[in-house]
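Design request, tokens follow.
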């Protein structure tokens, strides 16, 4: 219940007050209570009747973490701002959600989420790159990431992320669902996550594309997607000016997040 109340309070602030304001006392209280109760439950044997509630709590805590970004301008957002402990906290929580998923098995036949099993397999798992498949990946991406017909998720830290982004680009727009968009997180391999944490330029470009496609999705995705897309584009523009291929590929996310207009793109 605390997780629901925290989400409701953050959503209300997003709609009616200041989305970039710090967490309120009410929000902090419910989030801390939700986290404490959640951790306590996970430290005990999980009862079958509690599995769905635990998964819902994990989802809500992940959503509220992604929604809350204390930055009013790109210069205050990751990766452009000075490093701080809370950087990419949402990504760490996503990894924790995987463990909760395995513990609770939300799609089991007797679970309340079993009815969306087909949607999960079709939209969340569909973009996964099981084998090498570069057909459909834009040529400039193949060039930048050094991918060819021999590339796989096992020999390239970028392969799964690029493959998934290429799939999302083909359906980008009104047809892109929240589930399909978030599938990117599930297909991020540990070595790619490490590159993101290190602010590797090629990994950041992929993140810029992913953020760009989330700007017009559900409320808890929008603000971080907008702010960190801008911050990522400005970071790459500032520190990797001489990398022509990266600068060329930056045009798409820059247009999506408002740093460049389509007219400026045509003029270039």
């Amino acid at each position: 219940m605390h997780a629901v109340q925290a989400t409701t309070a953050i959503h209300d602030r997003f709609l009616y007050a200041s989305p970039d304001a710090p967490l309120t006392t009410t929000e902090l209280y419910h989030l801390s209570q939700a986290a404490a109760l959640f951790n306590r439950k996970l430290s005990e044997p999980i009862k079958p009747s509690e599995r769905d509630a635990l998964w819902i709590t994990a989802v809500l805590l992940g959503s509220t973490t992604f929604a809350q970004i204390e930055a009013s301008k790109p210069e205050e957002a990751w990766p452009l701002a000075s490093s701080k402990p809370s950087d990419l906290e949402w990504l760490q929580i996503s990894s924790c959600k995987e463990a909760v998923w395995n513990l609770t098995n939300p799609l089991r036949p007797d679970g309340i989420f079993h009815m969306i099993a087909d949607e999960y397999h079709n939209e969340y798992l569909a973009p996964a790159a099981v084998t090498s498949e570069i057909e459909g990946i834009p040529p400039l991406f193949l060039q930048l990431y050094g991918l060819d017909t021999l590339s796989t998720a096992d020999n390239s830290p970028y392969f799964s992320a690029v493959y998934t982004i290429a799939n999302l680009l083909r359906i980008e727009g009104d047809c892109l669902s929240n589930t399909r968009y978030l599938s990117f997180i599930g297909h991020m391999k540990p070595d790619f996550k490490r590159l993101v944490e290190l602010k590797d330029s090629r990994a950041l470009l992929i993140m810029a594309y992913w953020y760009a496609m989330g700007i017009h999705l559900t409320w808890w995705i929008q603000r971080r997607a907008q702010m960190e897309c801008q911050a990522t584009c400005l970071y790459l523009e500032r520190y990797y000016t001489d990398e022509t291929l990266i600068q060329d590929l930056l045009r798409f996310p820059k247009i999506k997040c408002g740093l460049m207009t389509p007219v400026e793109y045509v003029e270039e």
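Comment from the thread starter after seeing the answer: thanks! The chain has a mean pLDDT of 90.
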